[in-house]
Amino acid sequence: MSYGILYDATLCIDCKQCEQACATENGLPYDDKIAEQNYTSAHKYTTVLAKDDKFMRKLCMNCDDPACASVCPVGALQKTALGPVTYDKHKCMGCRYCMAACPFSVPKYEWDKAVPGVRKCIMCAPRVAAGKPTACAEICPTGATKFGERESLLNEARKRIQDNPEKYVPHIYGENEVGGTSVLLLSSVDFTNFGYRDDLTQRALPMYTYQVLSRIPDFVPLFGVMLGGVYWITHRREEVAEAEGQERHNDGKGGAQ
Amino acid sequence: MTLSMPATKFRFTFWKGVFVVIMLAGVYATWVRFRYGLGASTNLSDQFPWGLWIGFDVMCGVMLAAGGFTLTAAVEILNIKRWHSILRPTILTAFMGYLLVCAALMYDLGLPWNIWHPLIMRNPHSVMFEVAYCVMLYTTVLALEFSPIVFERIGWTWALQAVRSVMIVFVILGVILSTLHQSSLGTLYMIMPNKLHPLWYSPLLPVFFFISSIAVGLAMIIFESSMSSKYFGRELELPILRDLGRVLIVVLTIYGILKFEDFFHRGVLKDIFIPSYEQRFFLLEIFLSVLIPLAMLSFRKIRDSAQGLYFAAVISLLGFVTNRLNVTITGVENAVGGRYSPKWTEVVITAMFVALGFAIFGLAARYLPIFPEEKAHAPARKKPEGVRSEVPELVHAGD
Fold first, then answer.
1. Which of A77, A222, B285, B362 is buried deepest, with most CB atoms within 10 A?
2. What is the ipTM of this complex?
3. Do A105 and B132 touch (CB under 8 A)?
């Protein structure tokens, strides 16, 4: 069973209680200054963006088949069966491939620390494992952020669009983006207004590299035998040439035949 | 010193001064990096998690070491005996290149003391995992390929014979690992179809990285041989370099045609002619790496002359360095919305590794039997005054 978050921007009132709850849950500082920051960072995993009277949350999408977990050489990032994409600093070696690979540029780095780690929303993995909703969903006073099973959230999102087609853009962001994400977004205005790209592939990103990587075990023995064969031929040719030269010399012939 | 060379007095010269300044600045930058972290020592950010150290020190470092596998494949596997005399300096360049890449990685990794983690924490779906194993294994193979030079120097005949008897296995392993490693640096970017600009993002990225590494390997041998002849008073292996120049023409042409076909089939040929930030950098790259060198080498006079070959090779090298930097930095700038340029500490560390590369090569060339017909060239090495005044820091750096 996989859980997810449905954020309906039309219900959001920009109270920023989700930001506050997220900070508390993750032991991060939160004050008026941080509340004003309209971007996510190593100390702010979610933010509510405002444009005119429209709002939109930013948080880790917790992809179904996440690029970050796929590219991590040591498996520090993991997609859990329950939905959250978690991070283990004890495994991490700090190559930052996750940051480069993430299509949403979600993972942030503790640049100012001598012993840095990757920081991002992990969809409250410990809470979800304990059967509780995420902190942001629990605190949300209007139900704009809702926690539940991804499938039922998806159905609900479809129903909301169907019932009020004039209220929403006909797009559930996260349904198919990069193969689908645990976080689903609804909005009354185009998602690109808030920096969500509408040109993302619908294929799961890990397949792009796995189609190359999966060939390697086949490639190595074949290429090895090929190189060995070439070595054999080129050196054998030499031995033969030498031996023939010797014979010709013995026969008193020599020269090409 | 256990050397037969005459001891010389320490003389301070311009290049030695430059070397000392770079090293001192490098030590300070190292302190900043490890005491205060990546934020204080680099212009890296959440937008640009990879910068100069990945783009140049790692991407270009590995690429510039490609002569090692190119030449061992040609000499040991294809059995082209004529090229044997330049094998050792080429393996030295490759081995040193990989050691410097490993050292540079220790600066770039956020938690460098965890660099061994891929040994026990495996994620075979990660290209970086493949890269990590290629770096580890190929550096080991290069050490083994390099070991006969050391064994010969210290007179361990038994070890020399032991290594030589199994050398072909390591040679084949080295070619396989290099093929995987060079191409995997391109595969790294295949997971970013929506981040890397279409002028560079292609399903053929691993192929381009591999073919260009062969071109760079050849160009690097020409560059390194020319430098050796200039600064170590060695006779230039012009006939070999002429051969390599001709092979370079073929490889560059294959690369160029494949680039064209790739652009054609992906429908981005028009992007080459539409002015943009990326387009300017792409034109710079393609002219330097392929078009200008090919135009130069198409003249017999140039491809037969030592100087012509040298300049064609250097221009091509600069072009492929531009290519790697374009993939790492230029190609993603628009997608992440920003511009990246390195901080001075980043530049200093990179300069330190380049300077170390020259210095280590100079030292190894002096103290190890790198050049096979050493005895024949003894006279040239016995009059070091002229040689040393030219690039003394290379020869003296460790004295």
1. A77
2. 0.88
3. no
